[in-house]
User: What shape does this take?
Amino acid sequence: MDREAWRRECRRIAEERFDTLFAPTYDRDGAPASPTHRRCVAAVIDRCPPGGRILDAACGTGRFFGMILQAGRQVVGVDQSGGMLTEARAKHPEVTVEKVGLQELTFVAEFDAAICVDAMAKALRAGFQRMVVRGSVWRAAIWTSRRSTPASSMVVT
Ligand SMILES: C[S@@+](CC[C@H](N)C(=O)[O-])C[C@H]1O[C@@H](n2cnc3c(N)ncnc32)[C@H](O)[C@@H]1O
Assistant: This one.
């Protein structure tokens, strides 16, 4: 199998797993947002002007949409799993979501801040800088939340 075919197959499997295995149960059985999660997202929200736009990259079922909306900011979600986005839409039909891979995002200076939670955020660092408004304060929250270890967090400016 050549490299491109291998990459496509990996992606197909990843999408299928989230569409079929995780999407139906993620909100019910997945780890709820921990205090660390919420603290990191709150730090991002605080640095975004009221009414500002936040990109939630790999948003999944939109676990943080409510928190962002309640704080008076707008949110746009992107994810490669149609199944996860279906759950997000059901909870927050008012939020624009798009089925697209992180590696295919073409936004340029469209957001005041961007977050990527429990996904592949490290790969996004350069892309985040392009997607947010030049000169604005922006943060990407990155962390892991394995049940076996205390949640760790890193906020990148
Ligand atoms: C553990 S879930 C986290 C979802 C959400 N950020 C949260 O904190 O609840 C990981 C998400 O990343 C998405 N994902 C993984 N790789 C991706 C990629 N390359 N492009 C877009 N989404 C991706 C999956 O479909 C899944 O919804």
